[in-house]
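User: Hi! I have a protein structure encoded as tokens and I'd like to know what sequence might fold into it. I'm fairly new to this, so please keep things simple.
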């Protein structure tokens, strides 16, 4: 069963076509890669899928619990409420807040107490805050940050900040997770840990994952299928082994004939 169908998706910036007639289908529970050279349009696709940019043409259909919703040009908060979330190529944390508070911020749906209950510190406020605290700490333990809950986010290492961003994404209880270059800037040890983490969270939380990544060792190890984007268009799709030997893909990455 497909959870996401992207049909003839296009995005124009003035006279430039950044994304052109892209078709992508994600089956529920899949872990799929979206790769391509710098400037191929990968992050633009993510921005279209999450409502950051308006769509110039095409359809984006999200399906969940036998209900399909066209989400092209929806506001980001509507898309997030449906169960679609992402991380960013450039880390976007609340750097002056604690690690724990960064995760709790994403759990607003769990907090159903009223403004008055919060101001007066009524019992419902304390009980729900305790639940949120417990859940946030469990997610931080999941990504290996159990001992860093009180740290200020900007004081974490780069790799730890990446994992914190993943924990915050999981806090929204997504069904579909977009990871934009999660291994960027990581050392080999951190990359190896991330590879295992992506597989673990996909299986544990029954997620569908679409991954943008330049580190081919990560892509080949975790992805079950791969789409290749070049100059805004899909030039190949298939299993990792097929993509590795695809002539068009090799030419796109080498910048010429082989």
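Assistant: Happy to help. Inverse folding works backwards from shape to sequence: for each of the 258 positions I chose a residue that suits the local structure. Here it is:
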């Amino acid at each position: 069963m497909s959870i996401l169908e992207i049909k003839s998706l296009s995005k124009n910036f003035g006279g430039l076509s950044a994304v052109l007639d892209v078709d992508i289908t994600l089956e529920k529970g899949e872990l799929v890669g979206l790769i391509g050279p710098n400037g191929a349009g990968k992050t633009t696709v993510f921005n279209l899928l999450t409502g950051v940019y308006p769509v110039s043409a095409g359809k984006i259909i999200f399906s969940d619990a036998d209900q399909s919703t066209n989400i092209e040009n929806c506001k980001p908060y509507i898309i997030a409420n449906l169960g679609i979330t992402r991380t960013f190529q450039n880390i976007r944390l609340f750097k002056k807040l604690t690690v724990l508070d960064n995760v709790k911020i994403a759990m607003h749906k769990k907090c159903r107490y009223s403004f008055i209950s919060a101001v007066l510190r009524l019992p419902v406020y304390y009980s729900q805050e305790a639940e949120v605290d417990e859940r946030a700490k469990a997610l931080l333990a999941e990504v290996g940050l159990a001992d860093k809950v009180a740290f200020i986010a900007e004081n974490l290492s780069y790799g730890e900040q990446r994992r914190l961003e993943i924990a915050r994404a999981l806090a929204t209880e997504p069904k579909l997770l977009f990871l934009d270059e999660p291994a960027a800037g990581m050392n080999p040890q951190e990359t190896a840990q991330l590879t295992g983490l992506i597989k673990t969270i996909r299986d544990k939380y029954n997620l569908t994952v679409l991954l943008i990544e330049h580190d081919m060792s990560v892509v080949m190890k975790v992805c079950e299928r791969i789409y290749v984007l070049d100059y805004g268009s899909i030039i190949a799709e298939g299993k990792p082994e097929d993509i590795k030997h695809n002539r068009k893909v090799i030419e796109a990455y080498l910048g010429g004939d082989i």
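A useful reference point when you look it over: The chain has one domain: 2-254. Feel free to ask if any position seems puzzling.
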